Amino acid sequence: MGKGLSVLAFLFFVSLTASAQSLAYKTMLSGLYDDDFPLAYLNQTELFSKAVWLDTREKEEYEVSHIKGAKWVGYDTFSLGSVKNIPKDQPIIVYCSVGARSQDIGKKLRKAGFKQVYNLYGGIFHWVNEGKPVYAGNRQTPKIHTYNAAWGIWVDKGEKVY
């Protein structure tokens, strides 16, 4: 069995018996994130209150639930035109399910001259697992779009939607 398959098998096994903030989850996230791209952590409340929040998931995922006040910008359909009214020095927090897609969009924003772009550590999955609220429209909801059943293993709380 190749090294990659062994790691994947290990992560799957550990994820079946552990919470989303397990060693397996942290290991998975560390493999996704670039060391030089800034992360925003749940304890950074001052940053959270100043930042513009951008949801980089697909529209269907956003409509199931999103972080309150987040603007949907998408991933496959992302365009810099969707952020043209945001000042280049405005703090921005991007997020997706776990942080891979949002990091890609964050890099595009930085390349376009946005100076303070942060990727939400653990994405909306971590947000929900830590008991933070999500919304459908303006109403709080227990639902969380988990992308698919395989990614749903990382969500411990809320009502999973595929």
TrEMBL record:
Domain of life according to the entry: Bacteria
NCBIfam families, sorted: rhoda_near_glyco
UniProt KW keywords: Signal
All residue ranges annotated as the Rhodanese domain in the record: 47-136
Keyword Signal: yes
Family matches, as Pfam families: Rhodanese (PF00581)
Annotated signal sequence range: 1-20
Protein name: Rhodanese-like domain protein
